[in-house]
Fold:
Amino acid sequence: MTMMKRFLSLILLLCWAVNAGAAPLTIEITEGAEGALPIAVVPFAWAGPGAGPGAADVGGAIAEIVRNDLQRSGRFSALPVKDMLARPQSDSDVEFRDWKVLGMDNLVVGQVRPNGQGGYLVRFQLFDVFKGEQLAGYNFPTTSRDLRSTAHRIADIIYEKLTGQPGAFDTRIAYVVSSNKADGSQEVSLKVADADGFDPQTIVTSSEPLMSPAWAPDGRRLAYVSFEQKKASIYVQEVFTGQRQKVASFKGINGAPAWSPDGRKLALTLSRDGNPEIYVLNINTNALTRLTNHYAIDTEPAWSPDGRFIIFTSDRGGKPQIYRVPAFGGKVSRVTFEGDYNARASYAPDGASVALVTRQGGDFRVAVLNLANSALQVLSEGRLDESPSFAPNGSMIIYATKINGKGELAAVSVDGRIRQRLALQEGDVREPVWSPYTKTNRRNP
Amino acid sequence: MKLKALKFAPLLALSLLLAGCAGMTGSEQAQDGAPITEGGQDGSADGAQTSGAQEGGAWSGSPLENPDSLLYTKTIYFDYDVDEVRADYRDVVAAHGDYLAANPAVTVTIEGHADERGSREYNIALGERRANGVKRLLMAQGAAENQIITISYGEERPAAMGSGETSWELNRRAEFVY
Structure:
Protein backbone atom coordinates (compact mmCIF):
# COMPACT_ATOMS: atom_id res chain seq x y z
CA MET A 1 0.00 0.00 0.00
CA THR A 2 2.80 2.45 0.72
CA MET A 3 4.05 1.92 -2.80
CA MET A 4 0.60 2.64 -4.12
CA LYS A 5 0.47 5.84 -2.14
CA ARG A 6 3.84 6.85 -3.39
CA PHE A 7 2.62 6.54 -6.94
CA LEU A 8 -0.70 8.17 -6.34
CA SER A 9 -0.86 11.67 -7.75
CA LEU A 10 2.85 11.64 -8.44
CA ILE A 11 3.18 14.02 -11.31
CA LEU A 12 6.29 13.92 -13.38
CA LEU A 13 6.74 17.14 -15.24
CA LEU A 14 9.06 16.29 -18.04
CA CYS A 15 10.39 19.60 -19.15
CA TRP A 16 13.33 18.79 -21.31
CA ALA A 17 11.37 19.96 -24.30
CA VAL A 18 13.60 20.05 -27.33
CA ASN A 19 10.90 21.37 -29.58
CA ALA A 20 9.94 24.99 -29.11
CA GLY A 21 6.18 25.30 -29.30
CA ALA A 22 5.62 21.72 -28.24
CA ALA A 23 2.64 21.59 -25.92
CA PRO A 24 3.83 20.58 -22.47
CA LEU A 25 2.70 17.15 -21.53
CA THR A 26 2.30 15.69 -18.10
CA ILE A 27 2.37 12.04 -17.25
CA GLU A 28 0.59 11.13 -14.12
CA ILE A 29 0.91 7.67 -12.71
CA THR A 30 -2.48 7.24 -11.18
CA GLU A 31 -1.88 3.82 -9.77
CA GLY A 32 1.27 1.76 -9.39
CA ALA A 33 1.98 -1.88 -8.80
CA GLU A 34 2.90 -3.12 -5.39
CA GLY A 35 6.32 -4.68 -5.27
CA ALA A 36 7.93 -2.20 -7.67
CA LEU A 37 11.68 -2.84 -7.84
CA PRO A 38 13.79 -0.20 -6.09
CA ILE A 39 16.46 1.13 -8.46
CA ALA A 40 18.94 4.01 -8.35
CA VAL A 41 19.87 5.71 -11.62
CA VAL A 42 22.80 8.02 -10.82
CA PRO A 43 23.12 11.15 -13.01
CA PHE A 44 25.62 10.20 -15.72
CA ALA A 45 28.94 12.03 -15.38
CA TRP A 46 30.46 14.27 -18.04
CA ALA A 47 33.75 12.62 -18.95
CA GLY A 48 34.95 15.14 -21.51
CA PRO A 49 37.01 18.30 -21.19
CA GLY A 50 35.47 21.26 -19.35
CA ALA A 51 32.05 21.37 -17.76
CA GLY A 52 30.16 19.91 -20.71
CA PRO A 53 28.51 21.31 -23.84
CA GLY A 54 27.10 24.74 -23.16
CA ALA A 55 27.12 23.82 -19.48
CA ALA A 56 24.07 21.62 -20.20
CA ASP A 57 23.85 18.64 -17.90
CA VAL A 58 23.61 16.04 -20.65
CA GLY A 59 24.37 13.12 -18.37
CA GLY A 60 21.88 14.30 -15.77
CA ALA A 61 19.21 14.65 -18.45
CA ILE A 62 19.82 11.13 -19.78
CA ALA A 63 19.61 9.61 -16.30
CA GLU A 64 16.41 11.54 -15.66
CA ILE A 65 14.77 10.14 -18.80
CA VAL A 66 15.82 6.61 -17.81
CA ARG A 67 14.49 7.15 -14.30
CA ASN A 68 11.17 8.51 -15.60
CA ASP A 69 10.74 5.66 -18.08
CA LEU A 70 11.30 3.01 -15.42
CA GLN A 71 9.10 4.79 -12.91
CA ARG A 72 6.34 5.30 -15.47
CA SER A 73 6.20 1.58 -16.21
CA GLY A 74 5.03 1.02 -12.65
CA ARG A 75 7.46 -1.88 -12.37
CA PHE A 76 10.19 0.21 -10.75
CA SER A 77 10.54 2.67 -7.92
CA ALA A 78 13.37 5.07 -8.79
CA LEU A 79 15.38 6.70 -6.01
CA PRO A 80 15.24 10.53 -6.11
CA VAL A 81 18.64 12.07 -6.87
CA LYS A 82 18.57 14.09 -3.67
CA ASP A 83 18.47 10.90 -1.62
CA MET A 84 21.64 9.50 -3.17
CA LEU A 85 24.64 9.25 -0.84
CA ALA A 86 27.21 9.07 -3.64
CA ARG A 87 27.47 9.76 -7.37
CA PRO A 88 29.65 6.99 -8.80
CA GLN A 89 30.49 7.12 -12.51
CA SER A 90 31.63 3.56 -13.18
CA ASP A 91 32.22 0.16 -11.57
CA SER A 92 35.55 1.38 -10.16
CA ASP A 93 33.96 3.89 -7.80
CA VAL A 94 30.77 2.03 -6.83
CA GLU A 95 30.43 1.19 -3.12
CA PHE A 96 27.57 -1.32 -3.03
CA ARG A 97 27.22 -0.71 0.70
CA ASP A 98 25.94 2.83 0.02
CA TRP A 99 23.07 1.44 -2.04
CA LYS A 100 22.22 -1.50 0.20
CA VAL A 101 21.66 0.97 3.01
CA LEU A 102 19.08 2.75 0.85
CA GLY A 103 17.31 -0.51 0.09
CA MET A 104 18.20 -0.50 -3.60
CA ASP A 105 18.08 -3.76 -5.55
CA ASN A 106 19.76 -2.33 -8.59
CA LEU A 107 22.07 0.52 -9.55
CA VAL A 108 22.74 2.27 -12.85
CA VAL A 109 25.76 4.50 -13.44
CA GLY A 110 27.10 6.07 -16.61
CA GLN A 111 29.29 8.55 -18.39
CA VAL A 112 28.96 10.83 -21.39
CA ARG A 113 31.99 11.87 -23.43
CA PRO A 114 32.42 13.80 -26.67
CA ASN A 115 32.62 11.66 -29.78
CA GLY A 116 33.50 13.66 -32.88
CA GLN A 117 31.56 16.58 -34.30
CA GLY A 118 28.25 16.94 -32.41
CA GLY A 119 28.52 13.38 -31.22
CA TYR A 120 28.58 11.68 -27.84
CA LEU A 121 29.53 8.34 -26.49
CA VAL A 122 27.16 7.28 -23.72
CA ARG A 123 28.33 4.46 -21.49
CA PHE A 124 26.23 2.85 -18.81
CA GLN A 125 26.43 -0.07 -16.41
CA LEU A 126 23.68 -1.88 -14.54
CA PHE A 127 24.51 -3.63 -11.26
CA ASP A 128 22.88 -6.08 -8.92
CA VAL A 129 23.49 -4.39 -5.57
CA PHE A 130 23.19 -7.52 -3.43
CA LYS A 131 25.40 -9.73 -5.54
CA GLY A 132 27.72 -6.83 -6.23
CA GLU A 133 27.99 -7.70 -9.88
CA GLN A 134 27.40 -6.10 -13.25
CA LEU A 135 24.30 -7.26 -15.16
CA ALA A 136 24.76 -5.18 -18.28
CA GLY A 137 27.16 -2.62 -19.73
CA TYR A 138 26.97 -0.81 -23.05
CA ASN A 139 28.56 2.00 -25.06
CA PHE A 140 26.22 3.98 -27.31
CA PRO A 141 27.54 6.37 -29.91
CA THR A 142 24.86 9.03 -30.34
CA THR A 143 24.23 12.66 -31.27
CA SER A 144 22.62 15.56 -29.46
CA ARG A 145 19.52 15.00 -31.61
CA ASP A 146 19.21 11.34 -30.60
CA LEU A 147 19.92 11.71 -26.90
CA ARG A 148 16.34 11.10 -25.84
CA SER A 149 16.15 8.00 -28.00
CA THR A 150 19.44 6.74 -26.55
CA ALA A 151 18.12 7.26 -23.04
CA HIS A 152 14.98 5.29 -23.94
CA ARG A 153 17.14 2.46 -25.33
CA ILE A 154 19.07 2.34 -22.07
CA ALA A 155 15.77 2.14 -20.18
CA ASP A 156 14.67 -0.67 -22.54
CA ILE A 157 17.82 -2.68 -21.77
CA ILE A 158 17.45 -2.21 -18.01
CA TYR A 159 13.78 -3.14 -18.19
CA GLU A 160 14.50 -6.30 -20.15
CA LYS A 161 17.39 -7.40 -17.90
CA LEU A 162 15.34 -6.99 -14.75
CA THR A 163 11.84 -8.05 -15.83
CA GLY A 164 12.70 -10.57 -18.54
CA GLN A 165 10.41 -8.73 -20.96
CA PRO A 166 11.58 -6.38 -23.74
CA GLY A 167 11.08 -2.70 -22.98
CA ALA A 168 8.94 -0.44 -25.17
CA PHE A 169 10.28 2.95 -24.15
CA ASP A 170 12.11 3.64 -27.41
CA THR A 171 8.90 3.57 -29.42
CA ARG A 172 6.39 6.15 -30.49
CA ILE A 173 2.71 6.91 -30.44
CA ALA A 174 0.52 8.47 -33.12
CA TYR A 175 -2.72 10.21 -32.18
CA VAL A 176 -5.32 12.66 -33.43
CA VAL A 177 -5.80 16.10 -31.86
CA SER A 178 -8.77 18.35 -32.49
CA SER A 179 -8.54 21.96 -31.40
CA ASN A 180 -10.42 25.16 -31.96
CA LYS A 181 -8.52 27.95 -33.65
CA ALA A 182 -8.84 31.59 -32.67
CA ASP A 183 -11.55 32.16 -35.30
CA GLY A 184 -13.60 29.31 -33.82
CA SER A 185 -12.95 26.90 -36.66
CA GLN A 186 -11.82 23.35 -36.01
CA GLU A 187 -8.35 22.11 -36.77
CA VAL A 188 -7.59 18.40 -36.76
CA SER A 189 -4.02 17.13 -36.64
CA LEU A 190 -2.36 13.76 -36.80
CA LYS A 191 0.67 13.77 -34.53
CA VAL A 192 3.56 11.46 -33.73
CA ALA A 193 5.39 11.66 -30.39
CA ASP A 194 7.81 9.58 -28.38
CA ALA A 195 6.06 6.95 -26.26
CA ASP A 196 6.53 9.24 -23.25
CA GLY A 197 4.67 12.00 -25.09
CA PHE A 198 7.74 14.10 -25.83
CA ASP A 199 8.68 15.77 -29.06
CA PRO A 200 5.23 15.74 -30.69
CA GLN A 201 5.42 16.32 -34.44
CA THR A 202 2.43 17.14 -36.61
CA ILE A 203 2.38 15.07 -39.77
CA VAL A 204 -1.02 16.12 -41.19
CA THR A 205 -3.33 19.04 -40.48
CA SER A 206 -6.81 19.57 -41.88
CA SER A 207 -9.98 21.48 -41.22
CA GLU A 208 -11.85 18.24 -41.95
CA PRO A 209 -11.80 15.05 -39.85
CA LEU A 210 -8.73 12.81 -39.67
CA MET A 211 -9.26 9.31 -38.32
CA SER A 212 -7.97 5.84 -37.64
CA PRO A 213 -4.17 6.13 -37.83
CA ALA A 214 -2.43 2.75 -38.21
CA TRP A 215 1.31 2.09 -38.05
CA ALA A 216 2.88 -0.05 -40.73
CA PRO A 217 4.91 -2.92 -39.24
CA ASP A 218 8.12 -1.11 -40.23
CA GLY A 219 7.18 1.82 -37.96
CA ARG A 220 7.95 4.22 -40.79
CA ARG A 221 4.56 4.61 -42.44
CA LEU A 222 1.11 5.51 -41.17
CA ALA A 223 -2.18 4.77 -42.88
CA TYR A 224 -5.06 7.05 -41.94
CA VAL A 225 -8.45 8.33 -43.05
CA SER A 226 -8.83 11.93 -44.17
CA PHE A 227 -11.98 13.82 -45.15
CA GLU A 228 -9.98 16.67 -46.67
CA GLN A 229 -11.59 16.19 -50.08
CA LYS A 230 -15.04 16.32 -48.55
CA LYS A 231 -15.21 12.54 -48.61
CA ALA A 232 -13.40 9.80 -46.75
CA SER A 233 -10.14 8.62 -48.35
CA ILE A 234 -7.32 6.45 -47.03
CA TYR A 235 -3.75 7.68 -47.29
CA VAL A 236 -0.41 6.05 -46.56
CA GLN A 237 2.23 8.52 -45.43
CA GLU A 238 5.96 8.21 -44.80
CA VAL A 239 6.39 9.50 -41.27
CA PHE A 240 9.90 10.84 -41.81
CA THR A 241 9.56 12.45 -45.23
CA GLY A 242 5.89 13.41 -45.19
CA GLN A 243 5.42 11.88 -48.65
CA ARG A 244 2.05 10.27 -49.04
CA GLN A 245 -0.12 8.34 -51.39
CA LYS A 246 -3.90 8.08 -51.61
CA VAL A 247 -4.62 4.36 -51.62
CA ALA A 248 -8.42 4.19 -51.37
CA SER A 249 -11.06 6.72 -52.34
CA PHE A 250 -14.06 4.73 -53.43
CA LYS A 251 -17.67 5.83 -53.24
CA GLY A 252 -18.90 5.79 -49.64
CA ILE A 253 -16.89 4.74 -46.62
CA ASN A 254 -13.14 4.34 -46.93
CA GLY A 255 -12.19 3.54 -43.37
CA ALA A 256 -10.45 1.58 -40.64
CA PRO A 257 -7.14 0.74 -42.37
CA ALA A 258 -5.15 -2.10 -40.76
CA TRP A 259 -1.78 -3.37 -41.94
CA SER A 260 -0.95 -6.97 -42.69
CA PRO A 261 2.05 -8.19 -40.66
CA ASP A 262 4.19 -8.21 -43.83
CA GLY A 263 3.36 -4.55 -44.51
CA ARG A 264 2.17 -5.23 -48.06
CA LYS A 265 -1.56 -5.16 -47.58
CA LEU A 266 -4.21 -3.10 -45.85
CA ALA A 267 -7.44 -4.51 -44.55
CA LEU A 268 -10.05 -1.77 -44.75
CA THR A 269 -13.74 -0.97 -44.69
CA LEU A 270 -15.43 0.04 -47.94
CA SER A 271 -19.12 0.62 -48.57
CA ARG A 272 -18.72 0.94 -52.31
CA ASP A 273 -20.97 -2.07 -52.87
CA GLY A 274 -23.76 -0.65 -50.76
CA ASN A 275 -22.87 -1.26 -47.14
CA PRO A 276 -19.69 -1.56 -45.07
CA GLU A 277 -17.66 -4.69 -45.87
CA ILE A 278 -14.11 -5.79 -45.10
CA TYR A 279 -11.68 -5.77 -48.01
CA VAL A 280 -7.97 -6.45 -48.38
CA LEU A 281 -6.00 -4.07 -50.59
CA ASN A 282 -2.53 -4.94 -51.84
CA ILE A 283 -0.92 -1.50 -51.78
CA ASN A 284 1.72 -2.45 -54.35
CA THR A 285 -0.56 -3.99 -56.96
CA ASN A 286 -3.85 -2.29 -55.94
CA ALA A 287 -5.50 -5.71 -56.06
CA LEU A 288 -8.67 -5.60 -53.98
CA THR A 289 -10.25 -8.66 -52.37
CA ARG A 290 -13.59 -8.63 -50.61
CA LEU A 291 -13.63 -10.70 -47.41
CA THR A 292 -17.14 -10.24 -46.05
CA ASN A 293 -20.54 -10.23 -47.67
CA HIS A 294 -23.35 -9.33 -45.34
CA TYR A 295 -26.04 -6.65 -45.20
CA ALA A 296 -24.95 -5.78 -41.64
CA ILE A 297 -22.15 -3.38 -40.69
CA ASP A 298 -18.73 -5.01 -41.00
CA THR A 299 -15.84 -2.73 -40.00
CA GLU A 300 -12.69 -2.26 -37.87
CA PRO A 301 -10.56 -5.09 -39.26
CA ALA A 302 -7.34 -6.14 -37.50
CA TRP A 303 -4.82 -8.81 -38.53
CA SER A 304 -3.59 -11.57 -36.29
CA PRO A 305 0.20 -11.34 -35.77
CA ASP A 306 0.70 -14.56 -37.79
CA GLY A 307 -1.24 -13.03 -40.69
CA ARG A 308 -3.72 -15.89 -40.86
CA PHE A 309 -6.86 -14.18 -39.57
CA ILE A 310 -8.66 -10.88 -39.59
CA ILE A 311 -10.97 -9.95 -36.73
CA PHE A 312 -13.59 -7.27 -37.21
CA THR A 313 -16.69 -5.65 -35.72
CA SER A 314 -20.07 -6.66 -37.08
CA ASP A 315 -23.68 -6.18 -36.00
CA ARG A 316 -24.84 -9.15 -38.06
CA GLY A 317 -26.14 -10.70 -34.85
CA GLY A 318 -28.14 -7.56 -34.01
CA LYS A 319 -25.54 -5.84 -31.82
CA PRO A 320 -21.89 -5.09 -32.49
CA GLN A 321 -19.68 -8.08 -31.70
CA ILE A 322 -16.24 -9.28 -32.77
CA TYR A 323 -15.99 -11.85 -35.56
CA ARG A 324 -13.10 -13.57 -37.26
CA VAL A 325 -12.45 -14.52 -40.87
CA PRO A 326 -9.42 -16.21 -42.50
CA ALA A 327 -7.28 -13.48 -44.07
CA PHE A 328 -7.55 -15.08 -47.51
CA GLY A 329 -11.31 -15.51 -47.21
CA GLY A 330 -13.51 -18.20 -45.74
CA LYS A 331 -16.03 -18.87 -43.05
CA VAL A 332 -16.83 -16.13 -40.56
CA SER A 333 -16.96 -17.15 -36.90
CA ARG A 334 -18.04 -15.16 -33.88
CA VAL A 335 -15.41 -14.32 -31.24
CA THR A 336 -17.23 -12.36 -28.51
CA PHE A 337 -20.40 -13.44 -26.75
CA GLU A 338 -20.33 -11.53 -23.48
CA GLY A 339 -22.24 -8.23 -23.37
CA ASP A 340 -24.19 -6.34 -26.04
CA TYR A 341 -21.44 -4.10 -27.43
CA ASN A 342 -17.94 -5.25 -28.30
CA ALA A 343 -15.99 -3.35 -30.94
CA ARG A 344 -12.63 -2.09 -32.20
CA ALA A 345 -10.63 -5.22 -31.40
CA SER A 346 -6.88 -5.57 -32.01
CA TYR A 347 -4.52 -8.45 -31.31
CA ALA A 348 -1.85 -8.49 -28.61
CA PRO A 349 1.64 -8.90 -30.10
CA ASP A 350 1.67 -12.58 -29.06
CA GLY A 351 -1.74 -13.20 -30.64
CA ALA A 352 -3.10 -14.83 -27.48
CA SER A 353 -5.54 -12.07 -26.61
CA VAL A 354 -7.29 -9.06 -28.11
CA ALA A 355 -7.96 -5.61 -26.70
CA LEU A 356 -11.42 -4.24 -27.44
CA VAL A 357 -14.07 -1.74 -26.37
CA THR A 358 -16.93 -3.23 -24.40
CA ARG A 359 -20.08 -1.64 -23.02
CA GLN A 360 -20.84 -2.16 -19.36
CA GLY A 361 -24.16 -0.67 -18.42
CA GLY A 362 -23.95 2.69 -20.15
CA ASP A 363 -20.16 2.93 -20.02
CA PHE A 364 -17.65 2.09 -22.72
CA ARG A 365 -14.51 0.44 -21.36
CA VAL A 366 -11.29 -1.05 -22.61
CA ALA A 367 -11.05 -4.78 -21.99
CA VAL A 368 -8.81 -7.71 -22.88
CA LEU A 369 -10.28 -10.95 -24.16
CA ASN A 370 -8.24 -14.09 -23.63
CA LEU A 371 -8.77 -16.04 -26.85
CA ALA A 372 -7.97 -19.42 -25.26
CA ASN A 373 -10.63 -19.34 -22.55
CA SER A 374 -12.82 -16.39 -23.69
CA ALA A 375 -12.30 -14.63 -20.34
CA LEU A 376 -13.00 -10.92 -20.65
CA GLN A 377 -11.11 -8.63 -18.25
CA VAL A 378 -12.25 -5.01 -18.13
CA LEU A 379 -9.22 -2.77 -17.62
CA SER A 380 -10.33 0.85 -17.82
CA GLU A 381 -12.63 2.80 -15.53
CA GLY A 382 -13.94 5.66 -17.67
CA ARG A 383 -17.34 6.23 -19.22
CA LEU A 384 -16.22 6.79 -22.81
CA ASP A 385 -13.00 4.85 -23.24
CA GLU A 386 -12.04 3.76 -26.74
CA SER A 387 -9.32 2.98 -29.26
CA PRO A 388 -7.12 0.56 -27.29
CA SER A 389 -3.67 -0.16 -28.72
CA PHE A 390 -1.05 -2.57 -27.36
CA ALA A 391 2.54 -1.56 -26.67
CA PRO A 392 4.81 -3.66 -28.91
CA ASN A 393 5.99 -5.65 -25.88
CA GLY A 394 2.40 -6.39 -24.89
CA SER A 395 2.83 -4.93 -21.40
CA MET A 396 0.56 -1.90 -21.63
CA ILE A 397 -2.48 -0.74 -23.57
CA ILE A 398 -2.83 2.92 -24.51
CA TYR A 399 -6.37 4.21 -25.10
CA ALA A 400 -8.48 7.34 -25.37
CA THR A 401 -10.60 8.52 -22.48
CA LYS A 402 -12.61 11.60 -21.52
CA ILE A 403 -11.66 13.62 -18.50
CA ASN A 404 -13.86 16.60 -17.68
CA GLY A 405 -15.31 16.41 -21.16
CA LYS A 406 -11.93 16.59 -22.86
CA GLY A 407 -10.33 13.78 -24.80
CA GLU A 408 -7.11 12.56 -23.20
CA LEU A 409 -4.83 9.58 -23.45
CA ALA A 410 -4.36 6.96 -20.77
CA ALA A 411 -2.52 3.69 -20.48
CA VAL A 412 -3.09 0.63 -18.36
CA SER A 413 -1.01 -2.49 -17.84
CA VAL A 414 -2.55 -5.67 -19.23
CA ASP A 415 -3.03 -6.95 -15.69
CA GLY A 416 -4.85 -3.72 -14.80
CA ARG A 417 -2.50 -2.91 -11.92
CA ILE A 418 -0.68 0.08 -13.40
CA ARG A 419 -2.44 3.17 -14.71
CA GLN A 420 -1.06 6.26 -16.37
CA ARG A 421 -2.55 9.43 -17.77
CA LEU A 422 -0.89 11.34 -20.58
CA ALA A 423 -2.40 14.78 -20.47
CA LEU A 424 -1.81 17.10 -23.38
CA GLN A 425 -2.50 20.64 -22.38
CA GLU A 426 -4.52 21.66 -25.42
CA GLY A 427 -7.09 20.16 -27.67
CA ASP A 428 -9.13 17.04 -27.71
CA VAL A 429 -6.77 14.07 -27.99
CA ARG A 430 -7.91 10.68 -29.29
CA GLU A 431 -7.14 7.53 -31.27
CA PRO A 432 -3.70 6.73 -29.89
CA VAL A 433 -1.77 3.97 -31.63
CA TRP A 434 1.45 2.60 -30.27
CA SER A 435 4.19 2.06 -32.84
CA PRO A 436 5.84 -1.30 -33.41
CA TYR A 437 9.55 -1.70 -32.80
CA THR A 438 11.32 -0.17 -35.74
CA LYS A 439 14.54 -1.06 -37.47
CA THR A 440 16.11 2.16 -36.27
CA ASN A 441 15.10 1.74 -32.68
CA ARG A 442 15.58 -1.99 -32.19
CA ARG A 443 16.01 -2.31 -28.53
CA ASN A 444 19.40 -4.00 -28.28
CA PRO A 445 22.53 -2.47 -29.81
CA MET B 1 -37.52 17.57 -31.51
CA LYS B 2 -38.83 20.03 -34.07
CA LEU B 3 -38.38 22.69 -31.46
CA LYS B 4 -34.73 21.78 -31.26
CA ALA B 5 -34.34 22.16 -34.99
CA LEU B 6 -36.01 25.54 -34.84
CA LYS B 7 -33.57 26.73 -32.22
CA PHE B 8 -31.06 27.09 -34.99
CA ALA B 9 -33.49 28.90 -37.26
CA PRO B 10 -32.63 32.53 -36.40
CA LEU B 11 -28.92 31.77 -36.68
CA LEU B 12 -29.46 30.03 -39.96
CA ALA B 13 -31.53 32.88 -41.36
CA LEU B 14 -28.89 35.38 -40.35
CA SER B 15 -26.11 33.41 -41.94
CA LEU B 16 -28.15 33.12 -45.10
CA LEU B 17 -28.71 36.84 -45.22
CA LEU B 18 -25.04 37.49 -44.68
CA ALA B 19 -23.89 34.94 -47.17
CA GLY B 20 -26.58 35.80 -49.68
CA CYS B 21 -26.39 32.29 -50.86
CA ALA B 22 -28.61 29.31 -50.56
CA GLY B 23 -27.81 26.12 -48.82
CA MET B 24 -25.54 27.10 -45.99
CA THR B 25 -26.26 24.97 -43.00
CA GLY B 26 -24.78 25.00 -39.57
CA SER B 27 -21.88 22.84 -40.64
CA GLU B 28 -18.28 23.89 -40.24
CA GLN B 29 -16.54 25.63 -43.06
CA ALA B 30 -13.46 24.44 -44.85
CA GLN B 31 -10.41 26.33 -43.76
CA ASP B 32 -6.78 26.19 -44.69
CA GLY B 33 -4.93 23.05 -45.54
CA ALA B 34 -6.98 20.99 -47.86
CA PRO B 35 -8.37 23.12 -50.66
CA ILE B 36 -11.97 22.28 -50.16
CA THR B 37 -15.10 24.17 -50.91
CA GLU B 38 -18.05 23.67 -48.67
CA GLY B 39 -20.46 21.28 -50.27
CA GLY B 40 -23.34 23.56 -49.57
CA GLN B 41 -21.76 26.48 -51.33
CA ASP B 42 -20.90 25.05 -54.66
CA GLY B 43 -23.53 24.30 -57.20
CA SER B 44 -26.35 25.53 -55.07
CA ALA B 45 -26.08 29.30 -55.31
CA ASP B 46 -29.00 29.15 -57.66
CA GLY B 47 -30.90 32.34 -57.13
CA ALA B 48 -31.85 32.34 -53.51
CA GLN B 49 -33.40 35.71 -52.79
CA THR B 50 -33.68 36.00 -49.08
CA SER B 51 -34.72 39.65 -49.16
CA GLY B 52 -38.33 38.61 -49.42
CA ALA B 53 -38.26 37.75 -45.75
CA GLN B 54 -38.55 41.35 -44.69
CA GLU B 55 -41.41 42.28 -46.97
CA GLY B 56 -44.10 40.13 -45.51
CA GLY B 57 -46.76 38.59 -47.67
CA ALA B 58 -45.93 35.80 -50.07
CA TRP B 59 -42.54 34.11 -49.89
CA SER B 60 -40.58 35.04 -52.98
CA GLY B 61 -37.32 33.25 -52.30
CA SER B 62 -36.34 29.63 -52.48
CA PRO B 63 -38.75 27.41 -50.56
CA LEU B 64 -35.68 26.03 -48.81
CA GLU B 65 -35.45 29.29 -46.91
CA ASN B 66 -39.11 29.74 -46.18
CA PRO B 67 -39.52 29.36 -42.43
CA ASP B 68 -43.10 28.20 -42.99
CA SER B 69 -42.00 25.36 -45.23
CA LEU B 70 -41.10 21.86 -44.07
CA LEU B 71 -38.07 22.32 -46.34
CA TYR B 72 -36.76 24.85 -43.87
CA THR B 73 -35.87 21.99 -41.55
CA LYS B 74 -32.56 20.62 -42.80
CA THR B 75 -31.49 18.63 -39.76
CA ILE B 76 -33.36 15.62 -38.50
CA TYR B 77 -32.56 13.68 -35.36
CA PHE B 78 -32.36 9.98 -34.56
CA ASP B 79 -32.78 7.73 -31.56
CA TYR B 80 -29.72 6.11 -30.03
CA ASP B 81 -28.20 3.32 -32.12
CA VAL B 82 -31.13 3.59 -34.55
CA ASP B 83 -30.82 4.46 -38.22
CA GLU B 84 -34.52 4.55 -39.10
CA VAL B 85 -35.98 8.01 -39.70
CA ARG B 86 -38.24 8.85 -36.80
CA ALA B 87 -41.97 9.16 -37.43
CA ASP B 88 -41.96 12.84 -36.52
CA TYR B 89 -39.49 13.59 -39.33
CA ARG B 90 -41.19 11.60 -42.08
CA ASP B 91 -43.04 14.69 -43.31
CA VAL B 92 -39.83 16.71 -43.46
CA VAL B 93 -38.02 14.04 -45.45
CA ALA B 94 -41.02 13.61 -47.74
CA ALA B 95 -41.09 17.36 -48.41
CA HIS B 96 -37.43 17.30 -49.39
CA GLY B 97 -38.10 14.30 -51.61
CA ASP B 98 -40.96 16.11 -53.33
CA TYR B 99 -38.79 19.19 -53.77
CA LEU B 100 -35.99 17.16 -55.36
CA ALA B 101 -38.45 15.33 -57.59
CA ALA B 102 -39.89 18.66 -58.75
CA ASN B 103 -36.44 20.17 -59.27
CA PRO B 104 -34.34 17.52 -61.01
CA ALA B 105 -31.40 19.92 -61.43
CA VAL B 106 -31.04 20.32 -57.67
CA THR B 107 -28.65 18.07 -55.78
CA VAL B 108 -28.36 17.54 -52.05
CA THR B 109 -25.73 15.99 -49.81
CA ILE B 110 -27.08 13.99 -46.89
CA GLU B 111 -24.58 14.03 -44.04
CA GLY B 112 -25.03 11.24 -41.50
CA HIS B 113 -23.78 11.78 -37.94
CA ALA B 114 -23.62 9.80 -34.71
CA ASP B 115 -23.09 10.67 -31.08
CA GLU B 116 -19.74 10.01 -29.45
CA ARG B 117 -20.60 6.74 -27.76
CA GLY B 118 -19.04 3.60 -29.14
CA SER B 119 -16.13 3.17 -31.48
CA ARG B 120 -15.40 5.74 -34.13
CA GLU B 121 -15.39 3.60 -37.24
CA TYR B 122 -18.55 1.81 -36.13
CA ASN B 123 -20.13 5.24 -35.78
CA ILE B 124 -19.02 6.06 -39.33
CA ALA B 125 -20.96 3.00 -40.45
CA LEU B 126 -23.95 4.03 -38.32
CA GLY B 127 -23.89 7.55 -39.80
CA GLU B 128 -23.84 6.10 -43.29
CA ARG B 129 -26.85 3.95 -42.50
CA ARG B 130 -28.73 7.05 -41.35
CA ALA B 131 -27.79 8.95 -44.50
CA ASN B 132 -28.76 6.00 -46.70
CA GLY B 133 -32.07 5.64 -44.89
CA VAL B 134 -32.88 9.27 -45.67
CA LYS B 135 -31.77 8.75 -49.27
CA ARG B 136 -34.14 5.82 -49.70
CA LEU B 137 -37.06 7.88 -48.43
CA LEU B 138 -36.17 10.74 -50.77
CA MET B 139 -36.09 8.35 -53.70
CA ALA B 140 -39.41 6.90 -52.62
CA GLN B 141 -40.80 10.41 -53.14
CA GLY B 142 -39.46 10.45 -56.66
CA ALA B 143 -36.02 12.01 -56.24
CA ALA B 144 -33.42 10.55 -58.58
CA GLU B 145 -30.40 8.73 -57.18
CA ASN B 146 -28.00 11.08 -58.94
CA GLN B 147 -29.49 14.04 -57.07
CA ILE B 148 -28.41 12.65 -53.74
CA ILE B 149 -24.88 12.34 -52.35
CA THR B 150 -24.39 10.70 -48.98
CA ILE B 151 -21.48 11.06 -46.61
CA SER B 152 -20.99 9.88 -43.06
CA TYR B 153 -19.01 11.86 -40.55
CA GLY B 154 -19.72 9.46 -37.70
CA GLU B 155 -18.96 11.23 -34.44
CA GLU B 156 -16.24 13.39 -35.99
CA ARG B 157 -18.29 16.58 -36.43
CA PRO B 158 -20.52 16.99 -33.41
CA ALA B 159 -23.13 19.75 -33.54
CA ALA B 160 -23.01 20.09 -29.78
CA MET B 161 -20.00 19.62 -27.56
CA GLY B 162 -20.15 17.91 -24.21
CA SER B 163 -20.90 14.41 -23.00
CA GLY B 164 -24.48 13.82 -21.99
CA GLU B 165 -27.87 13.13 -23.49
CA THR B 166 -28.56 16.81 -24.23
CA SER B 167 -25.53 16.93 -26.51
CA TRP B 168 -25.86 13.40 -27.80
CA GLU B 169 -29.42 13.87 -29.05
CA LEU B 170 -28.32 16.89 -31.06
CA ASN B 171 -25.44 14.93 -32.55
CA ARG B 172 -27.41 11.88 -33.74
CA ARG B 173 -28.58 13.53 -36.90
CA ALA B 174 -28.72 13.76 -40.65
CA GLU B 175 -28.24 17.10 -42.38
CA PHE B 176 -29.54 18.17 -45.76
CA VAL B 177 -26.85 20.25 -47.43
CA TYR B 178 -28.14 21.83 -50.65
